[in-house]
Amino acid sequence: MVHLIGAPFDLCSPTLGSRLGPIAVRMSGLGNALTRLGVAWEDRGDIAEVDADIPDYQGRVEAAIPVYRDLRDRVAQSMKGGAVPMVIGGDHSLAIGSISGALKVHGSELGVLWIDAHMDLNTPDTSPSGNIHGMPLAALAGMSTGPAKNPEQAPILNAAWKEILSDIVPATRLDLTKTAWVGLRDVDPGEVANWKKMNAGPALTMQDVDRDRISGVMEAIDEWAHRVGVSKLWISFDVDSLDPFFAPGTGTKVRGGLTYREGHLIAELLCEMFRDSGRPMTLVGLDVVEVNPLTDQAGETARMANEWVASLFGNTIMGAQI
Questions:
Q1: SS3 for 97?
Q2: Helix (H) / strand (E) containing 34
Q3: DSSP conformation class of 18
Q4: What strand order describes the sheet that includes 110-115?
Q5: Which is nearest to 240 in space by CA: 250, 230, 232, 231?
Q6: Which residues, at least 6 apart from 192, have a Cβ–Cβ distance to it below 8 Å?
Q7: Which of 50, 60, 197, 298 holds its CA 20 to 30 A away from the CA of 280?
Q8: In the chain, what is the greatest distance between 2 CA atoms, to the nearest angstrom?
Q9: How many other C-beta atoms are found inside a 10 Å radius of the C-beta of residue 245?
Q10: Alpha-carbon distance 66 to 63, whole Å?
Q11: What residue ranges define each of the domains in the chain, with the CATH number in brackets?
Q12: What is the pLDDT of residues 102-145, one digit of tens each?
């Protein structure tokens, strides 16, 4: 059973509009696609929406905390009931809440596959922008921080960081050795330093995709999952992992991303991994984030997101493999 959980929140992104992502993805036929694949699903509605008219930095950061807490609890409740929660965002900072919920249930067994143009491993003292949407993995890992770079942001952001680590993220933090990245092409120096310091999992960039192709990249992911013992996997899929030509409707565009077919092959190979009895790894939940209808072209990105999810759940060119 898949539980759809909408998360219409975008205040921790520099570009508003991804709060409309959940309704766009639903209206583009996500439920019908799952039904055609024989996947049982239930729409569990949305978390409470926050007023978009919060212009100041402090108000936006403070509004995020209850959103993450609500999402964490909804994800944990869904998992405890035996379902696979699919969080439809919203900006990528929502992973602080969704993956915290998975950590509450699965603890140290949990691994994360982060499919994104961005590493999202900044801490307040390494972030050039101070936007929390670039920090979720660092928060989930419980990374310490010095004062934020921007003196005006520092008191607000550092206080929020302390609250996230003490009140949102569970005591069992995300083990970054059990975290891997695919599709990276816009990474800050501070994130690279944090990655090295935490001895984190493979960070596979678009250069790796160009050199090794998707089959080689996913073989590396499979080897990593076996080596570190990932038995429960959360996938966090940001539509900006695709090139803007294929996914124009996102506020975090970076040229040179995955093609449509490369993105789908990742999903198809992941599906094969989950269904292979020789690979003891199960999908426990996923994020589908950063769909922004305000920057989209005729709903193309929402449709692409639905099609990607369908591939993850078994759709292939020659028909669904149930």
A1: helix
A2: helix 30-36
A3: G
A4: 41-46, 2-7, 84-89, 282-289, 232-238, 110-115, 179-184, 203-205
A5: 250
A6: 119
A7: 197
A8: 56
A9: 12
A10: 6
A11: 2-312 (3.40.800.10)
A12: 999 999 999 999 999 999 999 999 999 999 999 999 999 999 99
Helices (runs of H) and strands (runs of E) counted in the chain: 10, 8
Which amino acid, residue 6? G
Closest CA to 130 of 57, 43, 233: 57
Amino acid at 217: V
Q: List the structure tokens of 77.
A: 């409740």
Strands (E), 147-281: 179-184, 203-205, 232-238
Residue 168, amino acid: I
First to last CA, the chain: 15
Residue 81: C-alpha distances to residues 7, 76, 284, 306, 313 (Å): 20, 9, 12, 24, 20
Is residue 140 within 8 A of residue 97, CB to CB? The reply is no
| Residue located via tokens 């909804």 | 74
Token pair of 230, please?
Answer: 């990932």
Q: Give the model confidence (pLDDT) of 141-188 as tens digits.
A: 999 999 998 999 999 999 999 999 999 999 999 999 999 999 999 999
Tokens describing residue 29? 């036929």
Amino acid at 70: D
DSSP state of 52: S
CA triple 27-28-33, angle to 5 deg: 110
Please say whether the beta carbons of 99 and 113 come within 8 A. no
DSSP state of 80: H
Q: What is the pLDDT of residue 322?
A: 39
Task: Transcribe 114-172 into DSSP letters.
Answer: EESSB-----TTT-SS--GGG-HHHHHTT----S-SSTTTHHHHHHHHHHIIIIIS-SS
State the number of CA atoms in the 13 A half-sphere of 310 facing the CB: 22
Q: Name the residues annotated as catalytic.
A: 92, 116, 118, 120, 133, 238, 240, 290
Count of CB atoms within 10 A of residue 90's CB?
Answer: 34
